[in-house]
Amino acid sequence: MVNTVNIQTVKKVNPRAEAMKKAWYKFSRNPLSVLGLVVVVGVIFVAVFATVLAPHPEDAGLSIHMTETFQAPGLAHLAGTDEYGRDVFSRILIGLRYSLAIGLLVLAISVPFGVLMGLLAGYYKGRLIEAIIMRFTELFMSIPPLILAMVICTMFSSKYIFAAIGIAVAWWPWYTRITYNLVTSLSNELYIVYTQLSGVKMMKIIIQEMLPNIMSPILTKMSLDMGSIIITASSMSFVGLGVQPPTPSLGEMISSGIKYLPNIWWLTIMPALMVVLVVLGFNLLGDGLSDVLSVEEK
Predict the structure, then answer these.
(1) Residue whose C-alpha is closest to residue 233's, from 217, 254, 219
(2) Can you tell me the distance from the alpha carbon of 196 to that of 42, in angstroms, rounded to the nearest whole number?
(3) Which has fewest Cβ within 10 Å: 1, 67, 149, 166?
C-alpha cells in the first residue's frame, strides 16, 4: 500500500500588496472618488498632449483671423473664437498645461521645504530652532497666500516661473504646520517612546518611523491643494501676473473676456468651466484619498 502525501503550496502574502488592494477596493467603492481620479487623469493627459489635441495649436500665439472673430461655439470652433478669431478651445487646452505646470512646480518647492522645516521643528522641540521655525511659519500663515504671491511676483518678475515661486513661498508654512503637528503627536506613541529608550537616535526615528506615517496626510493635502493653487495662479493671471500674453492662461482668458459679457459669454464661461472642472477633480480625488488613508491608519 502506497501512502500519498498531499503537498499544498502556500502562497506568500505581501502585506504591502494586500494593503494596496484593500485601499483600492475602498477607493473604487466611492463613485465620486473614482470620478475625481478620472477627471484628474484626463486633465493631465490633455495638458501633456495639448498641442496634439488642440485643433488650432497655432492660435496659442499671435495668430489673427479677422474674418472669424467672435464666432459662437459650434462644430468649427467648439468653444467659439475670440476678438482675434483665435480658437478658444485650443487656447484653453494649452492654457491648462501652464496651470498644471505652475501647480506641480509649487508643490515641488513647497512640500519638501515645508516638510523639512516641520521635521526639524519636531526634532528640536523645546529648543531655540523650533521657536524660530514655528514663529516664521505663523508669520507667513498670517498673510493671505494670494497677496504674498502677488507681492513677490511684482518685486521680481511677472513671468510664470516667479508666479510659481511666489505661490510656493506662501504655501510652504501649511506643510510645516501639519508635519510639526504629526511629528509632535507621534512622539507620544508608545512604540516611539520604546524606540527612544532603546537608544536609537531621534533623527533616525523621524526618518524611519515618523516620516512614512506622515506621508498619507501629506499626499491627501497635496491633492486638495492642487485645486487651490490653480485658483491662485488663475487669480494672478487675472490681474496680469504669471503667464503673459499672447501665451494663453485660464485666468487671463477669463479676465480679457469679461468686458464682452453678456453677449460674447463664451470668452469667459468656457475657461472658467475648465478651472471649475480641474478644481473639482482634484478635490474629489483628495477627499477619496483622505477617506482611504484615514482608514488605513486606523
Answers:
(1) 254
(2) 46
(3) 1
**pLDDT grade for 163, boundaries at 50, 70 and 90:** confident
Read out DSSP for 4-34? ----PPPPPP-HHHHHHHHHHHHHHT-HHHH
Half-sphere exposure of 293 (CA within 13 A, CB side): 18
Q: Which of the following CATH numbers is that of domain 24-293: 3.30.420.10, 1.10.3720.10, 1.25.40.10, 1.10.1740.10?
A: 1.10.3720.10
pTM of structure:
0.84
Amino acid of residue 251: G
pLDDT at 143 over 60: yes
92 grid coordinates:
484653453
Q: In this model, does residue 87 exceed pLDDT 90?
A: yes
Residue 188: band (very low, low, confident or very high) from pLDDT cuts 50, 70, 90 = confident
- For residue 213 the three cell numbers come to 506615517
Distance from chain centroid for Cα 81: 30
Quick one: average pLDDT of 171-177? 94
Helices of type H across 198-265: 202-205, 211-238, 250-258
Q: Residue 162's closest CA among 172, 171, 150?
A: 150
Residues in CB range of 153: below 8 A, 6 or more apart: 162, 163, 166, 236, 241, 242
